[in-house]
Description:
Layout: H1 2-20, H2 24-46, H3 69-99, H4 104-109
Amino acid sequence: MSVYFLCLVLFSVGLYCILRKRNLIKIIIGIVIMEYAVHLFFILVGYRMNGRVPIHSPDQTVLDMVDPLPQALVLTAIVIGLAVTAMIAAIAMRVYEKYGTFDITKIRKLKG
């Protein structure tokens, strides 16, 4: 149960970075931290103590198998998250080229 709490703490750290920081790079890092907290939570949901590989055989019971669905979902989410992070970083670089700063409070004050 404590690992689920640690996932919540990690998610809260990422949420804090998004809500309280004013630097675009720190906000992107907060998004990535939140994303990895969700991935870790999904993997922990499908994990079983002393579980075995999810290959069905007639001589063993189904009760002790690890659930493969969260693993597949997390693998897909990692690829999608990487693409989204690359896109957000590219947008941040374009903002820096145009305004010369990563500070969102200064960007809001500039015109053009």
